[in-house]
């Protein structure tokens, strides 16, 4: 039943998004604008600043992620469908996992567009190590979204949710973003040091395990009242 | 797996939001096959009471008993026995009527969610609009889909908050007949409404609420509108 609920919630979210394309367009547009602005500011005479690409990629993912989180739960608020989800006899952590996977999927789709753009504008060899880059982006996005999904669900009925979400989210996810930036920067070194990349990836996986476990543990009591 | 029970007992329930007391020492009981009406003006606490019975809110004090089961402890198995039609319809406007019903049937563990959705749409008289987005429906049509969503898992307890909103005469008649059907099947129905003319003769019990307190309860009231006016005209306290 747990995995069935996860699948039902994920499929529903993806169907709604395919019909409206609202979050995909706004997230991608915002992320691309962000990268373009930084490219104009940080690339002088064709020479980008060192490790700039890594930082810009993660800033764009984090900002776009915040936007996607807010919109995803705004949808559930409009017709109070979140209440219907909570009223169902399904495992509430399964509802959380379904929502989380939907957001991770959306952010990874946005990253698919962002990575080539950042590589092009910052002349960064991001695509030289596709396996490691995919691992870093996936684990980093999962860690960021794990905390974000929990907070966005908690704040869905708060009047000041748009202000509170980034205020609560960024301080807690800073370690994930820093690890993501350092791991991506390590990939951009002329001589790839796999030990460093593995270290940052392992750290990201640790963050994912801690954040997802805590969220699964706290989602039910936080959503009950 | 859902729990079964033959009565609902609300026992001395109070609910506070910060300093504001939304419900104050509410008690009533509804048995299997009864339709109980919660009547009162706006802000009387009807929706809060519904949310407490639906297990969406915990009482600050007192308790709700579903037969032998406690509302706080029974969890998912109890939720499987409750159907809720709220003031908001709990439907995704981007999805079709069939997709909405299939999704909720699946969440409630229906073995064949597709067949359950087909059957529910036939009951709503909307089989020909099954594959249209709910966002394109009129309020009355959405209300009919929402009612089927609330009933799709054949709940023992049905909570209806303003179910007649937006319905035309024909749909209202169909809903009243449906409620009669639920009563004869032994379902406990709790109904909050301002449509006193429609509710007249339909309710087995009425609980009148004002400012979060029960000011009167009665069995099978006659002339509901004039009774309501007389009860509400009483001075507070």
Shape of chain B: globular
CATH superfamily of the largest domain in chain B: P-loop containing nucleotide triphosphate hydrolases
Mean pLDDT of chain B: 90
What is the tally of helical segments of chain B? 9
What's the CATH topology label of the largest domain in chain B? Rossmann fold
- The CATH top-level class label of the largest domain in chain B: Alpha Beta
What share of the residues of chain A lie within helices? over 70%
Secondary structure class of chain A reads mainly alpha
Which keywords apply here?
heterodimer; A: 225 residues; mainly alpha; two-stranded antiparallel sheet; 8 helices; globular; B: 237 residues; alpha/beta; Rossmann fold; 2 domains; six-stranded mixed sheet; four-stranded antiparallel sheet
Descriptive report:
The complex is a heterodimer of chains A (225) and B (237). Chain A is mainly α and 225 residues long. Chain A has one domain. Chain A is built from eight helices and two strands; from the N terminus they run H-H-E-E-H-H-H-H-H-H. Chain A has helices at 2-20, 22-42, 52-78, 81-87, 92-121, 130-154, 161-187, 194-224, and strands at residues 43-44, 47-48. Chain A has a two-stranded antiparallel ribbon. In chain A, a hairpin with a 2-residue loop joins strand 1 and strand 2 (47-48). In chain A, 48% of the residues are buried. In chain B, a hairpin with a 2-residue loop joins strand 9 (205-210) and strand 10. Chain B has nine helices and ten strands. The model of chain B has no long low-confidence stretch (mean pLDDT 90). In chain B, the strands form two sheets. Chain B has a six-stranded mixed β-sheet with strand order 6-7-8-3-9-10, with helices on both faces. In chain B, strands 2-1-4-5 form a four-stranded antiparallel β-sheet. Chain B has helices at 46-53, 71-74, 76-79, 97-107, 113-124, 139-151, 169-184, 196-199, 224-232, and strands at 7-17, 20-31, 35-39, 61-66, 69-70, 82-85, 157-161, 188-192, 205-210, 213-219. The chains are: A mainly alpha (225), B alpha/beta (237). Chain A binds chain B through residues 1, 4-5, 8, 12, 15-16, 19-20, 75, 79-81, 83-91, 224-225, and chain B through 2, 54-58, 76-77, 79-80, 82, 84, 86, 88-95, 99, 103-104, 106-109, 133, 149.
